[in-house]
Amino acid sequence: MNWRLSSLDGLKLISNSDAHSPVKLMREANLFDTDLSYGAIMRAISEPDSPEFLGTLEFYPEEGKYHYDGHRPCGVRFSPEDTRRNDGRCPKCNRKVTVGVMHRVETLADHLSGRRSPAARPYKSIIPLIEIIAEVEQVGTNSKRVSEAYLDLLNRLGNEYHVLVEAELETIRRSGSNLLGEAINRVRSGQVSIQPGYDGEFGTIRVIDSQEREQISGQLGLFSCER
Ligand SMILES: [Zn+2]
Fold it and tell me: What is the DSSP string of 9-28?
């Protein structure tokens, strides 16, 4: 989104997570290859061509409550283009739609979607591990089952960053389940299904649909039989 505004090209873009609860630390993060010191990190951020700033980990911005436009009471979710086509009005009640972040980006942008800033550092889009486990287990993120599975996985494999980004998929499959391994594989390769948030409604990122769930579970059953 930022790369579409050439006025931002001279800035180094960093990502920091909210710090309002411990479990949400490092949902977004900056990756450095420096000494662990204030001076070294400052240098990596402030020097334009420093190779010590490797990139960022990012949330999917579509999960935000105001990514797209729309009118929540009517269940109308609009892309910026839909809003323009409908003259900024909800087709069900004719009230003005609530305009979201992407609309503002489209208004300010001087490049098309997909353009990359010349000085850009790479980024990875991640989903918090708790949310991935909750989807795999088909229960809420605050459930006991999810927190137990989450802590168990961290105890066995290492920290959340390692599980999400670095761990071998086969190791995750063995320590968690086939379904979890496949879910993390899809997050890593960006094979996710996104329903952007709008007008106060959180967006959703789905990794595995119910039909595939049966197929993947079926494969699991087959492997269990073989053992
Ligand atoms: Zn409406």
Answer: TTSPP------SSGGGTTSS
Ligand 1 centroid – CA 89 distance (Å): 8
Q: Are the CB atoms for 110 and 4 separated by under 8 Å? A: yes
Please name which of 123, 128, 122 lies closest in space to residue 187, comparing C-alpha atoms.
128
DSSP label at residue 198 = B
Q: If you search the block for the tokens 């999960």, which residue do you land on?
A: 63
Average pLDDT, the chain: 91
Predicted local confidence at residue 224, as pLDDT: 46
- Between the CA of 206 and the centroid of ligand 1 the distance, in Å, is 26
Least Cα distance to 1 among 45, 59, 71, 75 occurs for 59
The pTM of the full predicted model, rounded to 2 decimals, is: 0.82
What confidence score (pLDDT) does residue 213 get?
A: 81
Question: 82 C-alpha vs ligand 1 centroid, how far in Å?
Answer: 14
Q: How far is the CA of 97 from the centre of ligand 1 (A)?
A: 7
Using the predicted structure, report yes or no on whether residue 225 has a pLDDT greater than 60.
no
In 3D space, the residue among 134, 187, 189 whose CA is nearest the CA of residue 164 turns out to be: 187
| Ramachandran class of 11: left when φ > 0, alpha when ψ lies in -120 to 50, beta otherwise | beta
User: Cβ-count burial of 117 within 10 angstroms (0-12 exposed, 13-18 middle, 19+ buried)?
Assistant: middle
pLDDT digits (tens, 9 = 90+) for 59-98: 899 999 999 999 999 999 999 999 999 999 999 999 999 9
